[in-house]
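Supplementary material to the annual report.
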Amino acid sequence: MAGKSKIEWTEATWNPTTGCSKVSAGCKNCYAENWAHMQQKRGITQYEKGFQFSLATSRSKDPLRWKESKLVFVNSMSDLFHEQIPLNYLIELFETMEQSARHTYQILTKRPENALKWLKHYNWPVNVWLGVSVESKKTSHRLDTLRKIPAKTRFVSFEPLLEDVVPLDLSELDWIIVGGESGGQARHIEKRWVTRIQDQCKEQNIPFFFKQWGKRAFNPNNNDPTLNKSHEHHARGGCLIDNKLIREFPKAMYGTSY
Ligand code: SF4
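Predicted assembly:
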């Protein structure tokens, strides 16, 4: 069975690798790191090396067994383009994705330069979206690398958004996600940083998805109804902007791009 996901912009997760290593400021409070250490303490075999990058080879073909089509987030607990992934394993995973075209895959990486470097070894399947995480101006060069990769659907996750990153070059991008950091050590987010990205998306007609504010203290509206646990879109820090839930998806979701 697919791992059902609580992440608002996907339906299922598939983790054919686990563990990672930190590459930029956005990694500071990595959720996957805390999770890996918890699983290690519980004695889960896949996590015997804690947060060290590890292959989960028994999962490499899992999506072939999932009958219903799904939106699948690849590696919610790792980075598929980590330097330590063996090329033959990466090719095997791309074959799995290509052979299960009923699913739509969402790969999100902080290492698009590796995706680009290894690109000549595999064909980029049309059902595989590629996204980069960008948390700061310093990491916005990932957008330029993303544009060089022939994924049919390209997206960006500005989460955790750590500063004002506008103006941005959003050309050739199909979807933008924005969110604040959550958890005990969460760093703050400002509404202005969010709405400046939102405005640029509007101008350029790019679907915009606001995930959440991260913490109640960061939410500009203390009466946001999604702060309430009983709300259907409850998020710990709330998720409305000016009382609106804004959760758009790329055109590919509606079968118009491929
Ligand atoms: S790239 Fe992602 S999974 Fe890896 S350390 Fe950074 S935040 Fe964690």
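The first strand starts at residue 3 and ends at 4.
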